[in-house]
Amino acid sequence: MNKDLIQSRFKKHLNEYNQNAVVQKIMAEKVVNLCSQKKYENILELGCGTGFLTNLINQNLEFEKYTAIDLIKECETYIKQINPIIEFRVSDIEEFEYDKYDLIISNAALQWVNDFEQIINKIAAKLKPNGEFIFSTFGKENFKEIYSIMGTGLNYYSESELKALLPDMAACNQEIYVKSFESPKDVLRHLQLTGVNALENTPWTKKDLKAFENAYNNLCAVKPTLTYNPIYIKIINPTVG
C-alpha cells in the first residue's frame, strides 16, 4: 500500500470531498447510531478526513477528551472548525501510539491499512472495560465494476471472512448501494473527487481512457453504475470496569 500516494490523492480533492462522498456520509451516520452510550470519557477517531463522522459525534455525543488522527495535515482545519477542543494529530493508523479509550471509531478508513487483521486486534486491545470499537469498511462487492474492467482494487473482505477474523464479541452487517452515472468519465471523476483512485499511479493515455469507456459501456447495459458495499462492525470489550 503506497501511503504517500493515498495521502496525495485525498489531499488534492479535500475541498470537493464533502460534496461528492455521498455514500461515506450515509455510512458515518450509521456508525454513530451504533454507539451504545451518549457520553464517553475518551474518544479516538481514526482517519477523520474532512470530518463527516467528527461532526456527527460532536453533535450527538458528549465527551471529555477527543483525539482525531489522519495522514493529511490539512484535515486539521476542518476538524478545528467543528470543535476547537478536539485534538488533531497527523498519524498513520498503523503507526499511531494508542492509549486506552472508551470509544475508538472510524468511517471508511481501515480498508487502507496494510495488515487489517493485525490492526483490528491491536485496536481492540486498547479498549477500556466496556469500551467500544465501532467502524465501517467495505466488502468484496465494493467497486466490483472497476475490478471487472481493470482487475485491480483493494483487498476487501467478505462479511463472513470478517466475522472469522473478529473477536467473539463483535457484530457485523453489510449493505449494498448502487450509484448510476451518465458516462464512464463521470465514474472516473467521482472516484477522483472522493480520493478512492489512490491505487492508480500510472497516467492514462487517450487510448487507455477509450478502452475503459468501451469496457464500462459493455459491462453496463443502460447507464454506468458503481457499487458500494459498506460493512459496519462493532466490537465491545466485555471486561467489566
Structure overview:
- By secondary structure, the protein is α/β, with parallel strands linked by helices.
- It has ten helices and nine strands.
- It has helices at 3-12, 14-20, 22-33, 52-60, 75-82, 116-124, 144-150, 159-165, 184-193, 206-219; strands spanning 39-46, 62-70, 87-90, 101-107, 127-138, 170-174, 177-180, 225-228, 230-236.
- The strands form two sheets. It has a seven-stranded mixed β-sheet, with helices on both faces. Strands 7-8 form a two-stranded antiparallel ribbon.
- The longest helix has 14 residues, at 206-219.
- The model has no long low-confidence stretch (mean pLDDT 90).
Question: In short, what is this structure?
Answer:
The protein is α/β, with parallel strands linked by helices. The protein has helices spanning 3-12, 14-20, 22-33, 52-60, 75-82, 116-124, 144-150, 159-165, 184-193, 206-219; strands at 39-46, 62-70, 87-90, 101-107, 127-138, 170-174, 177-180, 225-228, 230-236.
Based on secondary structure, the structural category is alpha/beta
Tally the beta strands.
Answer: 9
How big is the Rg? 18 Å
Binned strand content: 15-25%
Sum up the structure in keywords.
single chain; alpha/beta; 241 residues; two-stranded antiparallel ribbon
Write the layout of secondary structure elements.
Layout: H1 3-12, H2 14-20, H3 22-33, E1 39-46, H4 52-60, E2 62-70, H5 75-82, E3 87-90, E4 101-107, H6 116-124, E5 127-138, H7 144-150, H8 159-165, E6 170-174, E7 177-180, H9 184-193, H10 206-219, E8 225-228, E9 230-236
Parallel strand pairs: 1-2, 1-4, 2-3, 4-5
Antiparallel strand pairs: 5-9, 6-9, 7-8
